[in-house]
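Entry 14. Ran structure prediction on the chain below.
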Amino acid sequence: MRKQSGTRICGLPLYDLAIGPDSAKGEVRGHARGIVAIGDIATGVVAVGGVARGFIALGGLALGVVSFGGCSIGLLLGIGGLAIGLVALGGVAIGVVAVGGGAFGYYACGGSAFGKYAISGIEQHPEAIRFFGKWIPGIDQLTRPPAR
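Output, C-alpha cells:
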C-alpha cells in the first residue's frame, strides 16, 4: 500500500504511507518519508513504523528526540521495553534520569536501580527521594523506614 499527500512542505509530502512490498519498485519493505510518515520503515517529523526515525518516533525500533517503542532511543525522552535517553522510562531504562524495572542512571528509580542517586528495593538514597518526590507523589512515604 502506498499513499502520499500532494501537499509538500520543505520538499517533503505532508504525509506518506508505505506498507508492505512494492514489486513494481523492487522494494521488500515500504519506506515512508514525509512530515508524517507511516510505514514498515518510516522517516519523518512524526514517524510510525517497524523502524521509525523522526522528531517523534513510534515503533518497534524508535529513534528520535522523543521516542516510544519496543527498543526506544530518544535524545530527550525514551519510553519502551528498552529505553535509552536523557530521561528513560521502561522495562530496562538507561539515562541521566531512569525509571524502570532495571534502571541505570545518575538518578535511578526501579526494582533494580543503579546510579549515583537511586531508589530500589535495597537502597533509598535521600537525594533520589528528594529528586523523584517532585514527580512521583508519595514516594517519600513509600521509602521511609517503618515507625517504631
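Helices lie at 126-133, 139-143. Will compare against last week's run tomorrow.
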